[in-house]
Amino acid sequence: MRAERGLPMKVEWTDDLLIGIGIIDDQHKKLVERVKGFTKAVESRDMAKIEETINYLIGYTIQHFGAEELIMIRNGYDEFKSHREEHSSFINIIYDANKSLQKKELTQEKLEALQELFLQWIVNHIKIKDKRIGEQII
């Protein structure tokens, strides 16, 4: 994750995002690329790309969180319940974004807030919460 002076924060895949579980790391890499594309789409106001990313995230959240939660349950991960609550919260954000998209209520301000939320999710959830899964399970 890096910030450019005077510009919104940008996201790049770096090895410090690896948690050590191959399938999860592969999915995280794809998420980072999508968020990177979303950031560019918000900056250029490319609604087709914004819609594509939100639609991708609908499927991604269900598939990815399901895979992560299965790993946590099978391995008796001690913070499963709180981790799952974070996943549910993010799913609700994606749901709300999709509803706003359908109603054509995604203003530039809302899109920039969503972009910031996606970037913060990558930093706070993957680098901290998901990293702990890898540390405990591997």
Automatic annotation (TrEMBL):
Keywords: Iron, Metal-binding
Hemerythrin-like domain boundaries: 21-133
Cited InterPro entries: Haemerythrin_Fe_BS, Hemerythrin, Hemerythrin-like, Hemerythrin-like_sf, Hemerythrin_metal-bd
Pfam families per the UniProt record, alphabetical: Hemerythrin (PF01814)
UniProt GO MF annotations: metal ion binding
PROSITE patterns: HEMERYTHRINS
Record family assignment: Belongs to the hemerythrin family.
Protein name: Bacteriohemerythrin
Native species: Heliobacterium mobile
